[in-house]
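Per your request, structure below.
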């Protein structure tokens, strides 16, 4: 089982995706997701120029050795580009090993610890009315846990909102929020923390009054608050019993969460932009968070994220893997295999991909009654149709950014 071909496939059916495809001398293939939203081509270059030449001729069975070799021999460790590239190799090798064994990857990871993965979707609306419609439509699609984001009075555009206008422009294709915009330059959005802090608790009060106490509700503050503002938000949301409050402060400063934790019992989730166990070391050990938001795609693959989650398990911290549309179907499948096998699974984020994406990637996961399951195909259970992929060349796209009223760039 020697790796004798490694191809990097870039395709943009509904958005950009980067996929690594490895082929062994005995004809097995494996897929890995290397999509880094808005910086896709940096990972393509890293893979093509620096990783593919190192893979050819290696034993595809040696997943851990290949991981350590790519991580340590680069000398320049970690970072989103490097760790997405290593993640793709790791996923593709697990896919190949599963096919060689005739088993789905979750069986190789220890077998199923549960029958399905509770998933949450993204409800949003510029107004409370739009938000309620969106929550209802998610419940009709089977979601049993729902993230709530709304417009804030006085702000033109804000993270996390798919308004009815967006929905109509997309001809009803999807009601989820997709932040990356195609175009030569990123969109500029506006931000005002005080308006946000005043408004959000009123929204959760309205949602609880309308939908009752049972429905698990989540919210994402998207890195925009200082520690004391985050503490204030967590405290003001306590009456509405959130499943989690996500990314309250910019992720770089792990110590910030100590202050937040001293003031609120609202559960905290963080880490969608983290890329290694080192980013979590202090916040897990000090029990400053409740959920690990890392995606398999951005955290060095199944092998590394499993180590992060095993470490987290010692502190009763659970998984809450990132699953926006910028994680490809391959990355989502990897998340589902890992989530099914670990004991400390918490919840899986799940936004549906567009119809074109589902034609490029053949998938075998199931979605029923609010639960995901990766299926029982050998490997990850995802195929890539090269002809379909070839129809959609890369399109420049960026995530937006923020400015305050006085023009200062703020965290997006
Ligand atoms: O902004 O995936 O919780 N989900 C999120 C996402 C991220 C995008 C970035 O590529 O915060 O919407
Ligand atoms: Co988030």
């Amino acid at each position: 089982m020697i790796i004798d071909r490694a191809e990097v496939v870039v395709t943009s059916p509904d958005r950009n995706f980067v996929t690594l495809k490895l082929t062994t001398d005995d004809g097995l293939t494996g897929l890995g997701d290397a999509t880094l939203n808005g910086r896709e081509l940096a990972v393509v270059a890293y893979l093509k120029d620096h990783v593919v030449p190192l893979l050819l001729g290696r034993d595809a069975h040696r997943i851990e050795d290949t991981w350590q070799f790519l991580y340590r021999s680069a000398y320049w460790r970690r970072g989103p580009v490097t760790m997405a590239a290593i993640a793709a190799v790791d996923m593709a090798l697990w896919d190949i090993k599963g096919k060689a064994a005739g088993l789905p990857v979750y069986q190789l990871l220890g077998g199923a610890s549960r029958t399905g993965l509770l998933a949450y979707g993204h409800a949003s609306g510029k107004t409370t009315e739009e938000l309620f419609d969106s929550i209802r439509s998610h419940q009709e699609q089977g979601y049993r846990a729902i993230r709530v984001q709304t417009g804030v009075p006085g702000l033109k555009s804000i993270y996390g909102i798919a308004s009815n206008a967006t929905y109509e422009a997309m001809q009803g294709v999807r009601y989820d929020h997709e932040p990356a915009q195609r175009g030569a330059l990123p969109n500029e959005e506006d931000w005002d923390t005080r308006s946000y802090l005043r408004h959000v608790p009123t929204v959760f009060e309205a949602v609880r009054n309308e939908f009752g106490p049972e429905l698990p509700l989540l919210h994402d503050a998207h890195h925009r608050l200082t520690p004391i503002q985050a503490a204030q938000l967590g405290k003001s949301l306590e009456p509405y019993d959130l499943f989690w409050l996500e990314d309250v402060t910019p992720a770089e400063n792990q110590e910030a969460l100590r202050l937040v934790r001293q003031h609120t019992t609202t559960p905290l989730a963080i880490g969608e932009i983290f890329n290694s166990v080192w980013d979590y070391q202090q916040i897990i050990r000090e029990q400053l968070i409740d959920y690990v938001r890392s995606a398999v795609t951005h955290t060095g693959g199944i092998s590394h994220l499993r180590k992060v989650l095993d470490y987290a398990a010692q502190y009763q911290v659970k998984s809450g893997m990132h699953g926006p549309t910028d994680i490809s179907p391959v990355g989502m499948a990897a998340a589902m295999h890992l989530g099914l096998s670990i004991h400390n699974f918490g919840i899986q984020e799940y936004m549906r991909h567009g119809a074109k994406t589902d034609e490029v990637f053949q998938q075998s996961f199931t979605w029923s009654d609010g639960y995901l399951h990766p299926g029982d195909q050998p490997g990850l259970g995802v195929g890539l149709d090269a002809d379909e992929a070839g129809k959609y060349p890369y399109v420049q796209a960026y995530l937006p950014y923020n400015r305050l009223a006085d023009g200062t760039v703020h965290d997006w």
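The first strand starts at residue 3 and ends at 11.

Regards,
D.
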